[in-house]
Structure formats: structure tokens, C-alpha cells
Amino acid sequence: MKKLFTPLLNDHVILWLVIINSILIFAQGFGLPEPYQLIVMLCDDLITVLFVIELITKLMVYSPHEYLKSHWNLFDGTVIILAVPSLFSLFLNQADESHMQYFLVLRVLRVFKFFRFIKYFPNIDKLLKAVQHALKASVIVLFGFVIYNFVISILSCFFYREIAPEYFGDPLLSFYSIFKIFTVEGWYEIPDLIASRSSLTVAFLTKCYFAVILITGGIFGLSLVNSIFVDAMVQDNNDELEKKVDLLNKKIDRLLDDQS
């Protein structure tokens, strides 16, 4: 029995199943005619069953303890388990709409199978390690950025909650609105709206106020966070290159000493 499912231990086979499954999920979003939609859904469920068999086979071959030692195996197993609820819709009476709607919502969880692609990215372990290092290096700057956003959002809430309640009606809404301005996405729409509802003096001061917010939080703030994060990500590579350069310089110095 184990030999029958041995191909499921091959990463290339699983990768192709993930690719095919992704195409099937993509196709289901186009509202295919009912016969074709049913075929696509059944194929999707079949691949989910194969993933479950893959999980069981690996647990039998490697033992649960050995299997869970790998973080990638733990990630794979979690993704497979999240996709399992979609299979229950096969056993429901189509006329029972209340239960059917519930399990159709659960079928959305099958999209988590897309994340199995991550495992097959080139140098993914090295990349994730670099991201982890970058997050640790930039956590203080990120925290400072959040605090700045928080302070400005509270200030803006008191200034404009009566004039523009749809953006500054409460501190949480104000926090989101200020963050939108930081991202430089439609930053002028909010001050223009406030200006249209205010006097000329308030309108002028409002535009100056949001221009300062944009420059300090959007242009300088996010640029600083981004630069620190990227610099921390490539720092390991730079350190490795520096070690190689130092080693090369030492070899050159030895050659020069030998010649002299």
C-alpha cells in the first residue's frame, strides 16, 4: 500500500499537483457552465484528497515526531488541514441550503493550498532568514512610526471629527486615514474635502498641516522604514562578501610577502 502512494513523497509530483490545483481554483472563478464547473470542483477535491493521502503517507514513513521536526512539513500539514473542510460539501444534500451555504464558505479555505508554492521558491530558507533578521533590525523604527501615526491620528481626530466624520469620526478611523496619507495614496482628497467644508483660513492651514504630515510620515517616515528593512535584508550577503574580500586580501598579502 505504501508503494502505491510513494510518488506522493516526490516534491516534483507535489509541485505539479499544486500547479494543476491552482489552475483549477482559478478556473472556478469564471462561472463555468454547470457540467464543467462540477468537473472542475471534483478534480479540485480529488487533489485535496491526494494531499491528505500525502500527509498520511509521510506520517507513516517518517513517523509524526520526525515529520514535525521540519518547519516546512508543519507548514504543509497546516495548509492541507485548512483545505480539508471543502471536502464535506460532497456529502451534503444540495437541497439543504442552510448547510450547503456554510460548507460553500468553507470551500474558500482551499485557496490556502496556493501557499504550498512558497516551499519551492529558490533559496527560500535564506530569504526567510533575511526577512526575519530585517524585522528584528527594523522593529524599533516600525514601532516609532506606529507611535507617530497614533499621535497624529489623535490630533487630527480632535481637529476634524466634526468637519469630516467619515475620516476622523473616532481615533481608530482617524488612525487609518492618517496611514492612507502616509502611503501617498490619494493624500490630497482628504484635505480638499475638509477645505471645501471650511473657511478660507482653515482650508489654507489644513492643506499646510497635511502637507507636513505627508512629508514627515509619508516621504521621510516610510522611506526610512523601507531603507532600514532592505539594508538589514542584504546585510548577511554584504557580510559574506566582506569576509571573502578580507580573505582575498590576506592571500594577496601572503603572495607579496613571499615575493619579497
The CATH architecture of the largest domain would be Orthogonal Bundle
CATH level 1 class label of the largest domain: Mainly Alpha
Number of helical elements: 9
The low-confidence runs, each spanning 5 or more residues with pLDDT under 50, are none
The share of residues in extended strands comes to under 5%
The percentage helix is over 70%
Distance between the termini: 72 Å
Encode the helix/strand succession as letters: HHHHHHHHH
Radius of gyration: 28 Å
What does this structure look like?
With 260 residues, the protein is an all-alpha fold. It folds into two domains: 3-120, Four Helix Bundle (Hemerythrin (Met), subunit A) (Up-down Bundle), CATH 1.20.120.350; 126-259, Helix Hairpins (Orthogonal Bundle). The protein is 76% helix and 0% strand. The protein contains nine helices and no strands. The chain has helices spanning 11-28, 34-69, 71-83, 97-106, 124-160, 165-168, 171-182, 189-196, 200-259. Helix 1 runs antiparallel to helix 2 and helix 2 (34-69) packs antiparallel against helix 3 (71-83). The longest helix has 60 residues, at 200-259. The relative contact order is 0.06. The mean pLDDT is 78.
